[in-house]
Structures are given as C-alpha cells and as structure tokens.
C-alpha cells in the first residue's frame, strides 16, 4: 500500500503542463518537421533551454498528440465541407422537386384541357365551331411557348433596351427555376455532392434547350466573371465583340454583343448571333446574367451584317448564381437557341435539332469549366511538368481553335480554295497570309515558323453503326493504323531552323511506335491533354534520316461511351521536345459528332464519304444519300470530319497539295476499314469478313505454325485435306479458335505479329494495328504468371498447356477462354525462328 502511494505522485509527475514559450518552440519545430527523429528531439532539448526540464519521451508524446490533433482537424474540416455540400444539394433537390411538382400539375391541367377540347370538337357539328376549336387550341399552345412581339424600339433609347432586358430576365428565370420549358433529365446525370449536377434537356419546345444546376466553391462575382468569358469554355466560339455597354439605374449593365461560332463540320455554314446581355442582382443577393437575340419581333437595334454566316437566334438564356451559406454558389445555367435547321442538308439536321448536343457543347461545358477553375483555385488539382493550369488550358483551347479554323476556312482569316478540275472528295485550302496567324491565335514572331503558307486538306463522311467514342479511342491508341511516319516527319520539319530539308513527304516503309505521356486531364476525365512520342525504326541507310523521335501535343475528348450527345475529338500538333508555353501549334485531326438514331435508305452497314458538291441539297424536302436498298432498322450514325494542315514553300505548293490530298484519302480509307472492324453490329449487318492476308510471308508463317504444332505435339492443327500453303492459310484463317503469333525479343515485351480472324475478333483489332498490341497487355496477372512459369518448359519441350483464364481485348473488354496452348515456332529445318516466335491458341473464347 505504501509502495502504491509512492508511485502515484511519481507517475503523475510525468504529465507536465507546457508553458506558452515551450508550446511555441515545439510548434516551430512541428511546422518544419511534424515527425522528428529521436536524434532531432534530443538536439531540440539541447538547443532550447526552456525544454531542458522535459524528457525526450514526453516530447515524443507531444508530437504524437499534435499529429493526431492535426489529423482530426483535417477530418473535421473535410466533414464540414461535405456537410455544406450536402446541405446545399439537399436545398437544390428540394427546389427541383417543387419545380417538378408544378410541372406535373401543369401537365395534368394540359391533359384535362385537351380532353375537354377533343370532347367539344367531337360534339360540334358545324364547320365554324370546328374551326373555332382549332383556333382556341392553337392559342393555348402559343401560351405554353409565348413569342411576344413588340413594336420597333428606339436603338438609342436605353429605356427601351431596359424593357427588353427585364423581359429577358423574367423569361430566363421562368426557364431556370420554373416550368416555362418541359425539361427531361438526361440519362446518366445523377445529382450528388461531387457530381457534375442536374442536367436536363427540352422536350417539345421551339428550338433546342438545355438546363443544368450544380454547386461550385466560388463566390458569385467570380462565377459571373468566368461565365462571361465565353471563348474560354465554349470551344465553338470564334469571336465575341461587345459593341456597346449601357449601365442601368439598378446597378446592372446592358451589353450589345455580336458573336460568331464555328461550324462543327465542313458540310454546313457557321452561325452568328446578335444579342442583348443583361447583368443584374436580385434582392436575395443572387447574380443573374441573361441574354437573348435582338430581332424584328423583340425590337432593338439591328446587328452587323454577315455574308459567311447564317444568323441564328438565342432565346432567353443565361445563368442564375445564388450564394451559399458558408461560401460557394448554386448555379443554374440555361441555353436555348434556334439554329435555323432548314438551312442545312437533311442528313445533318440532327446536329442542329439535338438538345443533347447543345447540352454537351454549351451548358455542361460551362459548368465543368467553372468547377475546374474552382478546384484549381482551391488547390485540389495537382499538375505535373511544371506547367500552370492556365497554360495547360491555353494549349487545349489553341488546339481546338486551330482545328476549327482549319475546318471552317474563313475568307477573312486568309483562306482560299485551291482550284481543281472537278468535284473533289477532299477539299484543299491554302493560306498565304501571315495576318491569319497574327489575327487569331499567334503573334507576329511565330509566323516564320510556318514557312510561306499553310495548306489544309479536309473531308467529311457519314458513318453508321460506329460509336464515336470507340472510334476515336481506337485512333488514339493505334496511330499506326492510319498515320504515316513519313508525313509526320514532314509535319515536324516546320519546327526546325531549316524546315524544308524534306522537300515532300513520301510513304514510309518502316514501322513506328508511339508512347503517350499524360500532361493534364479535366475533373470529369472527359478531356485529356498529352504528349505523344513517335519512335521510328529504320532498316535501310536512306531511312536513317527520317527515323527519329518526334513529339506531338495531343488533345483527346469524348471517349466516354456513356456520355450522351458528346462530340469525340482527336487533335494533335507537332512540337519540339521542350516546347515553350507559347509554342506555335498547327493542329490536325478528327472530329466525330453523333447523330440521333434515324431510319436511313442505305445498304447494310453503309460507311461512305459524302459527295460534298452535288448530293447535298438544302431545303425542306426529303434528301437521301445515293444508294439503293430497303430502310434499315434504327442505326447509330455520326459525322466524321478530318482536317490535316501542312506548311509549304511557294515553289513546293503543288507537290504538298498532291501529297496532302493523297494522304487524306488514305486516312479516309484507313478509318473506313477501322470503322468496319470495330462496328458492334458487323456480325449482323452483312459485312464481308476481314480480308484474308495473302503475302508470301503470311503463307510461310502459317506453314511454320502448323508444322511446329505437329512436331511438338504429334498431332495436326488443321485437317489434312491439302498441304498447299494457300489451303493451310485459308483453314487457319477461318479456324473457330483464336490463333495468334508473337515475336519474343531480348529486353522487349512480346509483340503480336499475326492472328487469324477469330484472334482479331478476340483482340478487337485489325492486322495493321496488331503490331501495337503486346502480349503482357492482354493477359491478366494470373495468366502472366502462369505463362512466365511455363516459359522454360515451352523452350525445352516445345509446347505447354495453360489453364482457363481471363484476358483483355485491345478495347479493354474481358475475354474468357477454357484452355490455351502455347508452342514454339520453328522453320522448315526445325530450327528456331529468328528472335523466337511463339504461337498461342485460345480455345472456346468468349466476351464476358
């Protein structure tokens, strides 16, 4: 008992109360090193006399407790942030629920009204009463989508413009928070604290409209500033000119704006808008930016004329920014436009009639851009490579803008059509004006990098049964399927001090490979900015000069197959290995825009290039592509636009034009082959099977594969109807099991060199793209370990059986197989083929 009484004060003396001076000294060390070592703690006691009465163990405990408090503080702060988001989202959902209830009540009333009108019409026996019923019904329908008409207002009268602005504000708020438009939620857009927000599109209204609402961690004034900078987030915006700014008595501003937008494809004209934009604040502290076109029906001044554009109409649209408790904002964005659909060919009208495409291009793009800047401002996004986020966004914007300039080829940018002898499937345009670069995205110091001019070769085609996201992802991952290394070399030559050492590109006969180096990606991962290193491999002395590493700055977007209405795009530009932030860019690439499913009068699985000059008639009549056949079922259709830009010297202009035309035609052919290979409906669409390879090398390799199987296993791989090489090739090609061959090189991953038709289907690729696929990329971890463990057995015994497993296609789809056989390939002399060749057969495979 006495011993216990003696230890108690001894133990309690270990819990010291630190003085403010001691805490300050410990905090200074903690800020430098939260977890000091034992030697550092002892050094601290020696250097700080005020800590001399504290034992090292007690200091260790203090640092442990301090780290624990810091962790708890961060967790509490994170939970408070999530709680604020959930509270704001709950408020948003409750308001959305109230709006939907009002919309349901409105529809119930509409339904009852229509029933009453139908009953009245059926009971009416006179023609006058029938006409009166139709007129009343039409008047009621007009009330649902009002189109007010006003007398011409004085362009110089601010009061008249304020009246238009207040009307625009009221109509916009009725769309953003009311039931003026029948909104239908887009598929896949689920609300949540970290989601993009609530996204809806219009149903049965004039024009096309989209609406979104969500949370952002920025104050309303900052959100308004970002939203007004439309070219930074609306990639189709070519230019925006504010011609007049008028302050209002309530502290707001009225702006008269002229905006030009790019056409998405070469097959249609670009659009422009003449609008009034009104910025004001509401009584609850919310900020509103609303906008509408000024027309003869709305009144107001007349906009500037435009000859190269089709004047489109912006119906009341804008953004409502409401402050949140604890910081941040709730924003509602509405876009409502009439793009004059009758001025484009019928086959392209779905591009201008789709609310989903509008939502992806404008409404969702604005919200994503605001959220991106919010997370960058809060330090939630870390970028590598020493580049600032604004610089990386600038790269993306310049790539898109340069590609849009090439696709549209505006005369005032200096573009002119290069004459041809007749109708061409590939359009060639040239630009010999340095003002084009100085006036758009480059300054005068960069013009010499582009020689004496730029030439653009472009084409558009209609694709069917090919998902845009799948096609662009394939083009990105399998560049060798469509690109030519010699042309890439010529494009990269414009960056060199003596750029025209390669006078004209020629098709290269040596292979190349690509390495994709990620640079940045957006928050939603819908867009990727990356550097691509192209590695050439020369086999002849004359190719050594061309076989050098080159670099491309590449932008890829829209490769999510679940994104409804998203445009898929792959744009790249040659760069130096260490490119500056203001490096000149000359973009080329692909854009695939989905069209709404529609019954077409084309042959099964038709994939063709549109005749740009003669087959596209404009007007309300029925236009169809040339071709015979019965109407198909609903098909997935999309418009593909290809544009490649090249620099040239004047004395080489015709040579470069010929090369560019030939190259784009070869790219179109490659894309058609890829589209036919990856089309999901190719089995049922009546397409011809993949072309049977007939080269002497293929015949020899097939003979070696079959005889090696017989030597090692003592049995026949194929039935012995004929031993002729062409007969063996045909049997192997149409074998039901996936048979493929890969080369084994020292210090390199095994690369596939051959596969039969079943093998290509399993890998979801083509013979040309097969060389880009490595064996270790398709095997899962278990399959890779088993193959490694059996490799010595294969080399000694000649073959090995592999158990059932899972592998992955080039498109990322899992494939199961019941059994696999691997055997060593030997030549006619039963000697190992150079670099070791391994054959594999996957038995009874199927997609999971």
UniProtKB/TrEMBL annotation:
It holds the Pfam family MEKHLA. Residues 11-74 bind DNA. CDD domains: bZIP, homeodomain, START_ArGLABRA2_like. Its main location: nucleus. The keyword Transferase does not apply. Coiled coil: none annotated. Belongs to the HD-ZIP homeobox family. Class III subfamily. This is Homeobox-leucine zipper protein ATHB-14-like.
